[in-house]
Write a structure and sequence with these properties.
- The complex is a heterodimer of chains A (515) and B (394).
- Chain A is 30% helix and 34% strand.
- Chain A has 515 residues and is of the alpha+beta class.
- In chain A, strand 11 and strand 12 form a beta hairpin.
- The two termini of chain A are 23 Å apart.
- In chain B, strands 2-1-4 form a 3-stranded antiparallel β-sheet, with no helix packed on it. In chain B, strands 3-5 form a two-stranded parallel ribbon.
- Chain B has 11 helices and 5 strands; from the N terminus they run H-H-H-H-H-H-E-E-E-E-E-H-H-H-H-H.
- In chain B, strand 1 (206-211) and strand 2 (217-222) form a beta hairpin.
- Helix content of chain B is 69%, strand content 6%.
- Chain B folds into 2 domains: 2-169 and 280-385, no CATH class; 188-279, no CATH class.
- Chain B has helices at residues 2-30, 40-69, 77-99, 102-119, 136-166, 174-202, 252-276, 281-289, 294-328, 336-356, 363-385, and strands spanning 206-211, 217-222, 228-230, 234-238, 244-246.
- Classes of the chains: A alpha+beta (515), B mainly alpha (394).
- At the A-B interface, helix 2, helix 3, helix 8, strand 7 and strand 10 of A face helix 5, helix 9 and helix 10 of B.
- The structure holds protoporphyrin IX containing FE.
């Protein structure tokens, strides 16, 4: 039988290698090499899922300890072989690059000759050619019958060309380009993915924005500002919400389950600088971002990625109790963002000496862990109308004052704000990935859903007519499509010459070919 | 709640229809001559019709449950696996529509049945959807991916037919051994189902408490008699029996289930092989598989891959990337589930390219179809239950 894969076209990689370029070309054009590459990528990828990759392990422990502690000796080996970062390892990337090269070379190698061969197809083929096809039939027939077959094939949407008594019917030739189209799409996709390695192609920052705050977006180089107008956190509530009641049992087990978290935002653009150096902002738009519904503007996307489960304090209010007279003064409010230093309460003067937004005791001294107002503590001096001054350190579950202090500082209220973790991203490789992915998908569908089918008919020796068929997939379907037409016109029915054989030890074997 | 109860009933009805359809396909095939034309017209047609009615009731289940839970019911292992079983039926209906081959029904329908029965072993409790899973793209991604896998799974059935037909049962060969291993594996799935039902009936599990790697106290609730426990485990309730202590990093609860499934599978296998059939299971099935030409079996495998792979790539990779981009703000993160979807695709891509190579069609290709289904099931069961990741349902 003839090898019909590329219609017998002259393929570069199949010639005898001459130079080293030819050798490299043949290497990458080889389907065997392609199979090896795909096989190795399968095995490599699978290894990467045995234990979690480094990016998914908890951050409390260094990876060198984590793998050993969680997974024992296998974990240690896994880590020392670098499998904890497998998908960015040099060998994995080399495999992908080689696959890409192979895709390019193998496609060019075959596409050009195949294109030429299919473009210039003779209608009348040699008997040798026809007998070399998988489907072949030979027997008596007339030209009138061939004419009849022609119109029958046309009804089945074949494109038919004639050369005297010879006939060529063809359909879905464009399906042959499917593999090349999909390979091209893949190459574009890979190139896009590789470009993402360069920071110039994408920006990605996480911004923590407190309710009410406006921040400059680093990802946009300070061109845009976002204000967090409100952060909304909704939990499933089987007791009060009828809709959620059906989940009661599951929530009982799992604890509180969030239903939605969402940040309402306003976007500003910087249009200039005020005299005091602060940015002059102009409102652009407002909207919201929640999980699965990012907020987009310009070329940027804002994702609701996290929220702080510990809201920050905006302001705290206090009262002062005179323990001698029983009088109460205040309340007064300390704005944590812009605190005032003195508060006058009917003659009692309170001075804020120190403010610790995130209180801790370090080396025996009061100190702050971070500038975020998560656990504020205040150092006040309280001066009586008589001019005596006492000091007070007050914070959450903390009240350090002299036993005999006349004035007692007490909490009178708090104002809190949630903080939303917003991921601001832009990526200029998206269009490349989308185009590559689309071409890939189109190519796959073209190649898989449209089998190329051809039928040749011609007069042979004497009164004989030869009928042969080619398809690049599903030969039995071609047979089932065309055999009834052959039968109807009375032309010889074709047979498949390339049937599989069972192992020859069983009884049913002999029935084969009887029908 | 009513919707949900009714949906379960519809699923049960679908199951019955599928089962009867399988029986009719068996009759159609056993009564069928090599040239393929005796009883099949009658029985094969009815069998196909029942499969369609079964499918319609399962579709009703799907939408009723949707109405009940308020979101597309493909968001836990029970719902997803059931849906996958339904998509296998769709795959079968499509491919049968092209080739009208009853033998395919005889092999594909039982596998779909097995998958649906397997699904019903997972908890069908309705759970609230966390925000990340509440997405149109997720629904599109999951359903399309499952449809692709369902169609691809048909190549498993026809690959098996090919191998059963082609392999000589009279002489020792790798194919003969591995076919028997495949049969045994299917028996173990059946074993899991029967053993789960049995022990649920008599309630012979127990609860143990132990200290895990990180020094926290954890407890395992066994639904089957306890064979393995973690080091230093304390029995809180249930029967103790003979249980083996194993190192803490092994999840003995899952191991326990696995071992019981294998025991169940082994019992079924031994019964079949030495009492009922008195020959290899594969050998018993061979005469049925012989009713199909090798070429046709090979072509059906190829065709299922050709139809299923584009659907799978679209759903399992492309839609998956779109969803991942929207929900996790990265379209690809090398999460185990993602990696295994990629491996699934590459396996079938390997299959297609292997066929370009002369002489690599036939047996090798058929084994790859069997292996491909193995990977799909692995991705469904193992990756979800054992390797936890973002997409994990468990
Ligand atoms: C992940 C990577 C790849 C994908 C998704 C892919 C996809 C495909 C598909 C879907 C087909 C059509 C198969 C059929 O019709 O049965 C095909 C054909 C082909 N592929 Fe690939 N391929 C990949 C990698 C490669 C590599 C590395 C080579 C290098 C040798 C290669 C060489 C070929 C050849 C020679 C054909 C046949 C072309 C024809 O029939 O005219 N492919 N590919």
């Amino acid at each position: 039988m003839l090898d019909m894969k590329y219609d017998g076209a002259d393929i570069r990689s199949k010639r005898r290698p001459k130079s080293w370029i030819d050798r490299v070309w043949s290497f990458f054009a080889s389907v065997k090499v392609g199979l090896w590459l795909i096989g190795l990528i399968i095995v490599g990828s699978a290894i990467g899922t045995i234990f979690p990759q480094e990016m998914y392990i908890p951050q409390q422990l260094p990876p060198s300890q984590y793998y050993a502690q969680e997974y024992g000796t296998p974990g240690t080996i896994y880590y020392s072989l670098g499998f904890h970062n497998l998908y960015t390892s040099w060998w994995y990337i080399t495999l992908i690059v080689m696959l890409t090269l192979s895709l390019i070379v193998a496609s060019i190698d075959r596409l050009v000759p195949l294109y030429k061969a299919l473009k210039h197809q003779p209608v009348r083929r040699t008997e040798r050619f026809m007998k070399g096809q998988r489907l072949i039939g030979q027997g008596p027939g007339t030209e009138a019958q061939i004419d009849e077959l022609e119109s029958a094939l046309k009804k089945k949407r074949y494109r038919v060309t004639r050369d005297g008594d010879a006939l060529l019917a063809e359909k879905h030739r464009f399906g042959r380009w499917g593999p090349y189209v999909n390979h091209l799409g893949l190459v574009i996709f890979f190139i896009g993915a590789m470009l993402r390695v360069f920071p110039a192609f994408h920006t990605d920052t996480l911004e923590w924005v407190r309710e009410g705050d406006t921040v400059s977006l680093e990802a946009t180089d300070g061109e845009y500002y976002l204000r967090n107008d409100q952060f909304i956190l909704e939990m499933y509530d089987p007791e009060n919400n009828e809709e959620d009641a059906k989940f009661a049992a599951a929530i009982e087990k799992a604890g509180a389950v969030p239903k939605n978290y969402e940040t309402e935002l306003t976007l500003f653009k910087k249009v200039g600088t005020n005299e005091d150096g602060s940015p002059q902002l102009e409102q652009v738009t407002s909207g919201s971002t929640k999980v699965n519904h990012p907020f987009t503007f310009d070329k940027y996307e804002v994702y609701q990625e996290q929220y702080s489960s510990r809201p920050e304090f905006l302001a705290m209010s206090f009262t002062i109790a005179d323990q001698e007279s029983g009088d109460t003064y205040g309340p007064f409010t300390v704005d944590l963002e812009n605190p005032e230093t003195t508060y006058d309460l009917d003659g009692v003067e309170v001075t804020l000496k120190d403010l610790y937004p995130d209180f801790q005791v370090k080396d025996g001294q009061p100190d702050t862990k971070s500038p975020r107002a998560l656990n504020p503590a205040f150092f006040f001096n309280v001066t009586s109308p008589e001019g005596e001054t006492e000091s007070n350190l007050i914070g959450i579950r903390l009240n350090v004052a002299d036993e005999d202090n006349r004035y007692k500082v007490q909490f009178a209220g708090t104002e809190m704000a949630s903080t939303s973790g917003l991921r601001v991203k832009s990526d200029s490789t998206y269009p490349i990935l989308i185009i590559g992915g689309t071409i890939f998908m189109i190519g796959i569908i073209m190649g898989m859903y449209w089998p190329h089918r051809r039928v040749w008919v011609r007069k042979g020796e004497g009164t004989d007519v030869l009928v042969s068929g080619f398809t690049n997939k599903n030969p039995s379907s071609l047979r089932r499509e065309v055999s009834p037409l052959l039968e109807k016109t009375g032309l010889p029915i074709w047979e498949d010459q390339a049937k599989f054989e069972s192992k020859p030890d069983d009884d049913t074997q002999h029935e084969r070919g009887e029908s | 709640m009513e919707w949900i109860d009714w949906s379960s009933r519809m699923l049960f009805i679908a199951f019955i229809f599928y089962a009867v359809s399988t029986v009719l396909f068996t009759i159609a095939v056993s009564g069928m001559r090599k040239d393929g034309n005796v009883n099949r017209v009658a029985y094969g047609k009815y069998a196909y019709l029942l499969a369609i009615i079964g499918f319609a009731s399962q579709l009703t289940y799907f939408f009723m449950r949707w109405a009940g839970v308020g979101y597309a019911p493909v968001s836990n292992l029970y719902e997803y696996t059931t849906f996958f079983g339904m998509m296998m039926v769709v795959g079968f209906l499509v491919v049968y529509g092209i080739y009208k081959n009853d033998v395919l029904g005889l092999f594909a329908m039982p596998v779909a049945l097995l998958v649906i029965a397997f699904a019903s072993m997972f908890s069908s409790e309705v759970a609230p959807l966390i925000p990340a899973l509440n997405s149109v793209w997720l629904k599109i991604h999951v359903t399309t991916a499952a449809l692709g896998q369902g169609i691809l799974a048909i190549s498993f059935a026809s690959g098996l037919i090919f191998l059963l037909n082609e392999t000589s049962m009279k002489e020792q060969s790798k194919s003969r051994t591995w076919l028997e291993v495949t049969m045994f594996t299917l028996m173990c799935v059946l074993g899991f189902i029967l053993v789960s039902m049995l022990f649920k009936g008599i309630g012979s599990g127990g609860v143990v408490e132990f200290t895990n790697d990180r020094g926290q106290t954890e407890s395992y609730e066994y639904l089957m008699p306890i064979l393995f426990v973690p080091e230093g485990a304390q029995l809180l309730s249930g029967a103790s029996g003979l249980s083996l202590e194993l190192p803490n990093w092994i999840n003995t609860l899952k191991l326990n289930t696995l071992v019981w499934s294998i025991i169940g599978g082994a019992v079924i296998y031994v019964l079949l092989r030495f009492v009922i059939l008195r020959k290899r299971v594969a050998e018993a099935l061979q005469p049925l598989a012989k009713k199909v030409d090798l070429d046709l079996a090979d072509e059906i495998s190829y065709r299922s891959v050709a139809i299923g792979l584009p659907v799978f790539i679209l759903g399992g990779l492309i839609f998956a990337m779109i969803w991942a981009q929207i929900a996790w703000n990265r379209f690809w993160g090398w999460d185990p589930k993602e990696v295994w979807a990629l491996i699934t695709m590459l396996t079938y891509v390997y299959y297609l390219h292997m066929r370009i190579q002369r002489g690599w069609t036939g047996t090798r290709a058929a084994w790859l179809c069997v292996g491909g289904f193995g990977i799909i099931m692995f991705n469904l069961v193992f990756v979800n239950l054992v390797i936890a990741g973002l997409h994990s349902y468990a």
